[in-house]
């Protein structure tokens, strides 16, 4: 057989072509020891992060390690990350600095905010101080808001997120099909949520402002990550994401106290929160329910489509939020009845509601 007709040699098992490309790019920067790259964190998307040692004297202002982001262009776009990092950085909060970029290849070199998340440290003793800092940072971001800088969190996007619940949680995860009557009841709940969400005042929305994306720093708490999907939308969204966190749950009395503290601070800062605290709390609850229905769909999709079953363990907390919120409002109670019906029909899926 001639060389021209010989099959191309296959890559050795475990060969990581993207990592090789990333290391080649990093080597050309003369800032880091490319061979020192090791996984820095897991991600629910196609993005990967590597922690890398800096070369002696190459980047003293940024610490002994930096972070390299690998975002495959076929699946991810690094441009929004760069843009939002600039917007949030100008607001005065702690975000990674973009030190080098190759948009075409999907590579970024970032300053390192460490490896200690809020979730690592949060407990009854630390929560008051840590959440106070997180609320202050959120108000700084919202205070810098300007229309036209970020995509609109419009009705179509909010609806697409809600639709993840019947498609992925009900249809794929539970293996059930809603009857016409049930679908109509769910649409009524969705319409009530959307009417509330769209009536809220608009600000910058991080869109995943919670304990796994906030880093504990020696100064400038919190460090803020995973903001590339930021939008311009409802003012209560990030507050609900933070205080009704899928990964850590607090007593309702504590959550109410933190909501009130945020509301007081936001009013003093001139943010467009509802002037009535009861109405503001209702906005917070409706926005939180929209998010949690989306999260149920996303966690189910991560398992069934993306092979990431770890998020299934967080479903019970999210379902608890959904049930408690829906039970408090007449127009949302059909959702509780729907969940009851689904629970009775669903096959065993490895956890309890």
Written overview of the protein:
Helix 5 packs across helix 9 and helix 8 (252-268) crosses helix 9 (277-304). The protein has 353 residues and is an alpha+beta fold. It starts with 16 loop residues before the first helix and ends in an 8-residue tail after the last helix. 46% of the residues lie in helices and 11% in strands. The protein has helices at 17-27, 79-90, 118-121, 127-143, 155-173, 180-199, 237-243, 252-268, 277-304, 315-327, 333-345, and strands at 38-41, 48-53, 65-70, 98-102, 107-111, 202-205, 214-215, 223-224, 231-234. The strands form three sheets. A five-stranded antiparallel sheet has the order 1-2-3-5-4, covered by helices on one side. It contains eleven helices and nine strands. Strand 7 and strand 8 form a beta hairpin.
What's the topology here?
Layout: H1 17-27, E1 38-41, E2 48-53, E3 65-70, H2 79-90, E4 98-102, E5 107-111, H3 118-121, H4 127-143, H5 155-173, H6 180-199, E6 202-205, E7 214-215, E8 223-224, E9 231-234, H7 237-243, H8 252-268, H9 277-304, H10 315-327, H11 333-345
Antiparallel strand pairs: 1-2, 2-3, 3-5, 4-5, 6-9, 7-8
Helix pairs in contact: 4-8, 5-9, 6-9, 6-11, 7-9, 8-9, 9-10, 10-11
